[in-house]
Amino acid sequence: MKTDSCYNHSMPPAREIQAKSVLTKSGIADYCVNCYVGCGHGCIYCYARFMKRFTGHEEPWGKFLDAKVNAPDVLRREVKHKKPGRVFVSSVCDAYQPAEMRYRLTRACVQILIDAGFHVGILTKSKLVTRDFDILHGAENCDLGFTLTTIDEHLRFRIEPGASPTWERIAALEEACNKGIKAWAFLGPFMPYLSDTDEALDALISAVAPLPLCQLYADKLNPRPGVWNSIASFLKRYRPDLLETYQKLFFDREEYASYCADLGYRLQAIAAARGVAEKLNKVF
């Protein structure tokens, strides 16, 4: 199954807001930049839904979006008096979600950061980033990663309804490599017993193994409290037979630890079989 691009997906209208700050301290890198509040990709496993506590939005995650329309202007001021460092784009939204087609805020901010000598690290699930290859190409102080969760397009559409299909992301990764952009893949989070079977993991790793990526990162599904309701709703609709199993993983620490150890072992074995063990970094 090959679906059309994510830009045909029904997206929430954006509310235009003014930001006081854009370049903020981060636990992932030195800084992060988020030009949007909320995310139209609507991934069911997304940890960033906790942002609703601070924004006052009552809509479900994936059904609201704020665009910080003054983000480039604010960032131009901030880079003048902040020490250059690594900047993660983005930490609580996807910087290249469909709204970026209209607003072009991420593009402007990435250009500002590159010109100011900051190192930009982008992680996205959207092929829209290929629009900006003209500014990423030739820039030594940037790298680009794509999140890849499954080759199964039926499952992908259900868990990441607004994101680009996996095959489009892999094609964009290949294009980035061909243009000399430092590229990597983030594999996961994996849906237990759905996208983490040996066959599913092998299909995903095999799809990226031929690419000259600098690194592969892999992560498990994180049982954060705010994520459970979204995961449970998905399971009740599509896989009620797995609901009890997921409950144990989310709420039984020993069960979860055992699952993670097994997943890590299998990932390493499959990566070795596909010749990319030296590139694999498990972040759990």
Structure overview:
This protein has 11 helices and 11 strands. By secondary structure, it is of the alpha/beta class. It has 2 domains: 108 residues, no CATH class; 117 residues, no CATH class. The strands form 2 sheets. The protein has an 8-stranded mixed sheet, with helices on one face. Strands 1-5-4 form a 3-stranded mixed sheet, with no helix packed on it. Helix 2 runs parallel beside helix 4. The two termini are 31 Å apart. The model has no long low-confidence stretch (mean pLDDT 94).
Category from helices, strands and their pairing: alpha/beta
Q: Return the domain count.
A: 2
Gross morphology: globular
Question: What is the topology, as strand order, of the major beta sheet?
Answer: 2-3-6-7-8-9-10-11
Largest sheet: 8 strands, mixed
> Helical percent range?
25-40%
Distance between the termini: 31 Å
Mean model confidence by pLDDT: 94
Give the percentage of residues in beta strands. Answer: 15-25%
Name the poorly predicted regions: none
Number of DSSP helical runs: 11
Summarize the structure.
This protein has 284 residues and is α/β, with parallel strands linked by helices. The chain has helices at residues 52-55, 71-78, 99-103, 105-115, 133-136, 153-159, 166-178, 198-208, 225-238, 243-251, 253-273, and strands at residues 14-17, 23-25, 31-33, 36-37, 65-68, 86-89, 119-124, 142-148, 183-187, 215-218, 280-282.
Q: What key phrases describe this protein's structure?
A:
284 residues, 16% strand, 11 strands, eight-stranded mixed beta sheet
